[in-house]
């Protein structure tokens, strides 16, 4: 048995490291999934809002606030109905041509991933870009007929 173990360790050191540190490998995989979802959300969905509804979970909550120049801020507004969420997102992100992710941080939770993202949006009709600071909570889709990840919550600070 020791001879077999020695041969395995000598020929498969990477595999052994993954087995020994599977928590680290799982965290890296989850971070890769979070990054892929983030790029899909910002690069594809917000520039084509007709596709966005496919990732908004039925139980999703959307909270947003507009921050005006010189520190003036609006009250937080929230939406829980998927149709109301879509209407609010369409108003905020209409005519987005390009999204630049300025900074992002994933926070891995037990059953979800929280992404804290700062982004800059170039819109067709506006000279100045729209800036946001957002918190996206993604998790496995709760609907049995759908697979993959969906948005469980969105909190957006819009900086005009």
The percent range for helix content is: 25-40%
CATH topology heading: Nuclear Transport Factor 2, Chain: A
Number of helices, where a helix is a run of at least 4 consecutive DSSP H or I residues: 4
Could you say which structural class the secondary elements and strand pairing correspond to?
alpha+beta
Organism: Giardia duodenalis assemblage B
Protein name: NTF2 domain-containing protein
Question: Any overview of this molecule?
Answer:
- The longest helix is centred in the first third of the chain and has 24 residues, at 22-45.
- A hairpin with a 3-residue loop joins strand 3 and strand 4.
- With 160 residues, the chain is of the alpha+beta class.
- Residues 1-20 have low confidence and may be disordered.
- Strands 2-1-6-5-4-3 form a 6-stranded mixed sheet.
- It has 4 helices and 6 strands.
- It is 33% helix and 39% strand.
- It comes from Giardia duodenalis assemblage B.
- This is NTF2 domain-containing protein.
Task: Summarize the model shown.
By secondary structure, the protein is an alpha+beta fold. It contains four helices and six strands, in the order αααββαββββ.
């Amino acid at each position: 048995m020791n001879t077999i173990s020695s041969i395995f360790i000598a020929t498969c050191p990477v595999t052994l490291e993954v087995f020994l540190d599977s928590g680290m490998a799982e965290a890296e995989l989850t971070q890769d999934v979070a990054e892929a979802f983030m790029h899909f959300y910002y690069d594809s969905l917000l520039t084509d809002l007709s596709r966005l509804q496919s990732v908004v979970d039925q139980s999703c909550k959307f909270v947003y606030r507009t921050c005006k120049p010189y520190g003036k801020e609006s009250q937080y507004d929230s939406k829980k109905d998927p149709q109301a969420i879509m209407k609010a997102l369409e108003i905020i992100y209409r005519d987005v041509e390009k999204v630049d992710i300025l900074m992002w941080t994933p926070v891995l939770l037990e059953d979800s991933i929280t992404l804290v993202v700062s982004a800059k949006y170039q819109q067709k009709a506006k000279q100045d870009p729209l800036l946001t600071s957002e918190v996206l909570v993604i998790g496995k889709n709760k609907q049995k007929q759908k697979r993959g990840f969906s948005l469980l919550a969105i909190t957006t600070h819009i900086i005009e």
